[in-house]
Amino acid sequence: MRTEASRRTALCAAFAAGLLIATFPASSRAAEPHRLALQISDDDLVKMRAVLDVAANVSRHYSGQGEDVEIVVVAFNGGLDMLLDDRSPVKERLLNFLKSMPNVSFVACGNTLETLAAKEGTRPPLIEGISVTQVGVAALMNLAEKNWTIVRP
């Protein structure tokens, strides 16, 4: 009888430990914010609007569930025009994002900026609040390697 009781105790203990192990990773993941990187590489107003729509929708979705989400928009090649102060076709909306959505940030590719500066004779001004990374695609790769979700709307 003692052996049967010992087995039951051991099984219960193993089950409880397994339950803790199975639930602990899920609860630790829930504490982590969701992370989304959006790529814009085309000088296309429809795609620029789509990027902003996705950022707004995802932010609204998770905040409505009481969960945190970090969103970064990485612009390179033709998509960089979205972040340029003198020509962004979505400048007003982007400024509203910068003012009202602190969980959404925008990053410009330094290589694309240098290419434009060489072509135009001067570096085009970025909208205030935009950060710069040297290589936009490398920034996306680094985020992917840190388990960010990368989307190109």
- How do the helices and strands follow one another from N- to C-terminus? HEHEHEHEHE
Q: What characterizes the major β-sheet?
A: 5 strands, parallel
Query: So, CATH architecture of the largest domain?
Result: 3-Layer(aba) Sandwich
- Please tell me the total number of domains: 2
Question: CATH homologous superfamily name of the largest domain?
Answer: DsrEFH-like
For this structure, the quaternary state is: single chain
Overall number of strands: 5
Secondary-structure content class: alpha/beta
The first-to-last residue Cα distance is 65 Å
CATH topology of the largest domain: Hypothetical Protein Ychn, Chain: A
Shape: globular
Helices, by number, come to: 5
What does the average pLDDT come to?
Answer: 87
- Global Rg: 23 Å
Uncertain regions spanning at least 5 consecutive residues: 6-29
Share of residues in helices: 40-55%
Biggest sheet: strand arrangement:
4-3-2-1-5
Assess the beta-strand content as a share of residues: 15-25%
Assigned CATH class of the largest domain: Alpha Beta
What would your notes on this structure say?
By secondary structure, this protein is an alpha/beta fold. It contains 5 helices and 5 strands. The chain has a 5-stranded parallel beta sheet with strand order 4-3-2-1-5, sandwiched between helices. Helix 3 (91-100) links the parallel strand 2 and strand 3. It starts with a helix and ends with a strand.
Produce a short descriptive summary.
This protein has helices at 2-31, 45-64, 91-100, 110-120, 136-145, and strands at residues 34-40, 69-75, 104-109, 131-133, 149-151. It is an alpha/beta fold and 153 residues long.
